[in-house]
Amino acid sequence: MSLDFGPATALSCRECGARYDLGPSFACLECFGPLEAAYSFGDVTRADIESGPANIWRYRSLLPVPADVAAKPNMNPGWTKLVQAGNLGKALGIRSLYVKDDSGNPTHSFKDRVVAIAVEAARNFGFHTLSCSSTGNLAGAVTAAAARAGLDACVFIPADLEQAKIAMARVFGGRLIGIDGTYDEVNRFCSELIGDPLGDKWGFVNVNLRPYYAEGSKTLAYEIAEQLGWRLPEQIVIPIASGSQLTKIDKGFKELIALGLVEDRPYKVFGAQAQGCSPVSTAFKAGHEVVQPVKPDTIAKSLAIGNPADGPYVLDIARRTGGAVEDVTDAEIVAAIKLLASTEGIFAETAGGVTVGVLKKLVETGRLDPEAETVVLNTGDGLKTLDAVSGDAAPTAVIRPSLDAFRAAV
Ligand SMILES: *Cc1c(COP(=O)(O)O)cnc(C)c1O
Ligand SMILES: [Zn+2]
């Protein structure tokens, strides 16, 4: 069987540039650096893209997938709304603000984007089982995608995740294994499994398929630029778990510039973490280039990676673009979820509370320009993290169905 990865021609090491054949590998044999997809792009025009489907496959000529990818059974994620957030902008004093609302994906988080690309890699390599280590959203995205693609699924999570995320991952079938430990321990276990006969023919979307998986995040950059009318935003606030999404959004913007699809103008990238798991923010503030691992303790479980693989690259990007990395407390996360909901009618999961909370903090401390066009990401659905607003999980009043009782209550 010959491999078909469309415009992707090789894997290359982010650290030393060594090149490898496209395969299910993720670390450089020379220096152990991470491998990423390298391309030879053809002529890509705005018109080609605009005539494509209303999902991530409109960008297939920029992704490591075969040209006929849209014809195969898959989840067709992407082309989520870019919401003009005038009310939230007014509340925060930002003139031009948009929310890129990725809760609108098939399994209600941004993870459907990355998994869709990983499924194509799994098919290319003849894997029969789709797997991952997950902080919650990835587990559901993988089991759903496997169901639709006709693959087996076996996914691994820290055992103490939100109920909604556990139920969501199980409803699609496959096996969901809870591990008594942190996400970082789950991830290490998966690396071990890859080397064992037990994990043979398994595609771990964020481990041995990571170079393909990670490219899915570029579609967020492409969509934002296209939805702004083929223009880069001046400022963008992105959540950080492993840091992959942030680094790939930056890669996506740079590709659009290089291909002449948008004008080359400066943009600032801001990273957002929860204070209970803020190793990248801590390193940014201290001026360090290395990220010290932490043990996470936050309600933003989807972002609770204590040893983020792409942390150093995030630091580079934030510094190079003139952005920053900031963090907010659990109380600020909850307040930000409510602020976004009550101003724009968008119910974000805790990760969206992190980005909106950080956005607020950055404006208040003068590091974000309130006059510049700004995009903030909401990467997941509030229904998955109801506990964060459990204080509101009751009516404002319970009355008998009579006008007198209502009058008395209001
Ligand atoms: C996974 C995830 C992210 C980002 O993860 P990275 O590892 O940094 O790419 C952001 N938001 C939500 C809700 C997620 O589930
Ligand atoms: Zn290398």
From TrEMBL:
<keyword id="KW-0663">Pyridoxal phosphate</keyword>
<dbReference type="InterPro" id="IPR001926">
    <property type="entry name" value="TrpB-like_PALP"/>
</dbReference>
<dbReference type="Pfam" id="PF00291">
    <property type="entry name" value="PALP"/>
</dbReference>
<protein>
    <recommendedName>
        <fullName>Threonine synthase</fullName>
        <ecNumber>4.2.3.1</ecNumber>
    </recommendedName>
</protein>
<comment type="similarity">
    <text>Belongs to the threonine synthase family.</text>
</comment>
<dbReference type="InterPro" id="IPR036052">
    <property type="entry name" value="TrpB-like_PALP_sf"/>
</dbReference>
<feature type="domain" description="Tryptophan synthase beta chain-like PALP">
    <location>
        <begin position="77"/>
        <end position="380"/>
    </location>
</feature>
<dbReference type="InterPro" id="IPR004450">
    <property type="entry name" value="Thr_synthase-like"/>
</dbReference>
<keyword id="KW-0456">Lyase</keyword>
<dbReference type="InterPro" id="IPR050147">
    <property type="entry name" value="Ser/Thr_Dehydratase"/>
</dbReference>
<dbReference type="GO" id="GO:0004795">
    <property type="term" value="F:threonine synthase activity"/>
</dbReference>
